[in-house]
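FAQ: What does the model actually see?

It sees only this:
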Amino acid sequence: MRYRNRLATLVLAALAAGLSVVSVNAGDAYTQHCAQCHGESGAGNLELGAPNLTGLSESYINRQLSGFKAGWRDNRDLQTRTMTSAIATLDDNSLSAAVAAIARLPHQKVKKTAQTQNGDLARGKDLYTAYCSACHGTNGTGNDALGAPSLVGLDSDYMNRQYRHFVEGRRGFHPDDRYGKQMARLSLAVKDPNLIHDISSYVVQLPF
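And it is asked to produce this:
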């Protein structure tokens, strides 16, 4: 409970800098609306549950930010509520500017945690190869044609959380979220939390 309260305090403080709807250029859009949680470099913040944004394609970034604004995600968890609130402050021009700024960020390496090290990497590799690589690629860099994002550079906590959201129907439920619906369906092939963690532990080891 103390952790959740601290997280909520950090998130609210991060958002306090700018909740008015404004139009700004690309760099300013990122600095004003994204950097408070995701960092100036875009590498993310494990304590806030904010993922690394670098290495993602512009089309994927645009689809996800637009999806947050359109209500594509269940926002029962604090991280999703935070993003939904943050996106609501951006008009269309500011959102486009933020997308462009994020897409230009240089790649940042994933931040590994102690939890990352306790997955079964061999089993994770086998599971990834069998269930994930067809869309996300053998090297984890994704496939825009399939709507599959790069997974390289994401931390295991974030991947575990998002995978569970797909399994639980909290992502991929919206009728307009074509690729999310696809992932939600495919995610049901692996539902055991331990196996999901093995997959994410393996992905974290993949190089840029």
